[in-house]
Amino acid sequence: MATSKLMRAIRVSEFGAPSVLKLCSDMPVPSPGQKEVLIRVHACGLNPVDTYIRSGSFPRKPSLPYTPGLDVSGVVESVGEGVHLLQAGDRVFTTSTVTGGYAEYTVASEDTVHKLPDSLDYKQGAAIGVPYFTAYRALVHKAHAKAGETVLIHGASGGVGIAACQIARAFGLKVLGTAGTSNGMKLVLNNGAHLAFNHREKDYLEKIKDATNGQGVNVIIEMLSNVNLSNDLQLLDFGGRVLIVGSRGPIEITPRDTMMKETSIIGVAMYNATERERSECAAALFAGMEAGWLKPVVGPHYPLEKVAQAHEDIINNSGASGKMVLII
User: Fold this and answer.
1) Cβ atoms of residues 48 and 249 within 8 Å
2) pLDDT in tens, 248-258
3) What does the CA dihedral 50, 53, 58, 64 come to, rounded to 10 degrees?
4) What angle do CA 257, 263, 168 make, to 5 degrees?
5) What are phi and psi of 326, to 5 degrees?
6) Is the Cβ–Cβ distance between 277 and 253 less than 8 Å?
7) What pTM, to 2 d.p., does this model score?
């Protein structure tokens, strides 16, 4: 049963352009059910997947109307029955929500809510969920990346990219990152990459090959596979793996390119993780927060009423620099 309190939230009543994101100021504050938590939201991560869902082009569609937003950070307001590990007043972040994160309050299932260490602020808290869990899933669960291997992170200056750089460096890989601006390249180097390359330069692929002494790389984390996948296959060493984290359309590849070196193309979707994989990931990331290497980089941030602009910017930016967040 909903409480009588009202809140501001973004509602989407039809799939389409960013203009379908409407600010509604009289939404009832939801109540947490069994094993659910009500969170007072301070910040919410903006992810490319939010824009695909909003446009209607994502395979998993929410029923309309809905409130977007998966990874929030804030304070537990109240807990439902059966919740034992969290209590009102806890600082938390989420990897998903039940009622949507672009709102002043959200309900989330207890197993997607994690305590936020005091060393990180709420903006950083909103930059952990989707990026770090996705990067860990790609590197560890899907690529089975090992210390000593070389990883190339394409689009390393965005939320998932920076997460992947930090995790890969901490786990003993040689880390190469690409970005589209000189600031982006600096950011990548400051967050764990040994080398950075500008993917707008014509010969950047040659430079990457040279950096591996012509060997190629073992693992590629790919955010924009509709542009890069064919080139990625040329960059892999024997037994190399390309992990598809993002794509915005089709691409033509030559399957023979995978045969010579017995390479693999592997899709990654965070929502497929099992409960055991999620808890392993959470434990690894907590160790990173304690050790200090997990430090989310917050990029542009927007108030709730500027959310349509944020959705424009996340797709049409000239080069990512950190994780985009909504401040609520």
Assistant:
1) no
2) 899 999 999 99
3) 160
4) 125
5) -95, 135
6) no
7) 0.93
